[in-house]
Amino acid sequence: MPNPRPHLGEPLALDLLNTRWIAAEGPQDLLTDVSGLRQWLTDNELTAAADDKTLKTVLTAREAILHTARGESTADLNTVLDHGRIRRTLTPTGPADIPETRHPEWFPAWLAADNLLHLLAAAPDRIKQCAHPDCVLWFYDTSKNGTRRWHSMLTCGNRAKATRHYARKTHPR
After folding, report:
1. Confidence of residue 149 (pLDDT cuts 50, 70, 90)
2. How many angstroms separate the CA atoms of 63 and 69, rounded?
3. Minimal CA–CA distance to 113: which of 158, 58, 156?
4. β-pair type (20-23, 26-29)
5. Cβ count near 154 (within 10 Å)
6. Please, is 59 exposed, middle or buried when counting C-beta atoms within 10 Å of its C-beta (0-12, 13-18, 19+)?
């Protein structure tokens, strides 16, 4: 089955936020059931059980990441992060950082929350929501000067340009 989401390929935390989008039919949510969770886990090459317990933890992480990305609250993100840790160890091939959670259903949620920490540490101003007023998608701005505005120039960027062009044609100065 083809992926229904319009924007893939963002870092894990933002990809989790992008499990909600706006389509012609209205708001969409990939994570309304276990099959949507299975799709998201597969998209991100995560091996975890696609069950109701994992779905609940991933939804909790999605809301926590959203509140943090919007600058509203960090408390929920810290609660998700409390469910896991990085265990540092020395392996036969050298040092390794191993993510661990107390309960397996928290593993994908914890990885997404941890990913947000990495994005915030690297460049918090590059975590952006698409500037189109009818779009809810998020992206990590990798442009050279950090001024990207749209999750995709082909969709939202062109829609905004077309709207401005139409306004100029129908309401000339």
Report:
1. confident
2. 10
3. 58
4. antiparallel
5. 9
6. middle
- Show the tokens assigned to 56: 């609940």
Q: Which residue type is seen at 138?
A: W
* Bridge partners, 27 (sequence order): 22
- Segment holding 99, helix H or strand E: strand 94-101
CA distance 65 to 87: 23
pTM: 0.88
The answer to whether 114 and 93 have CB atoms below 8 angstroms apart is no
Residue range 29-85, pLDDT digits in tens: 999 999 999 999 999 999 999 999 999 999 999 999 999 999 999 999 999 999 999
Residue 161 reports pLDDT greater than 60: no
Quote the tokens at residue 118.
């990495």
Token pair for residue 107?
């593993």
For the chain, how many residues are written? 173
What is the token pair recorded at 26?
Answer: 């209205």
CA distances from 12 to 26, 48, 119, 157, 169 (A): 24, 15, 10, 23, 42
Q: Tell how strand 138-140 and strand 94-101 pair up.
A: unpaired
Q: What is the DSSP letter of 104?
A: G
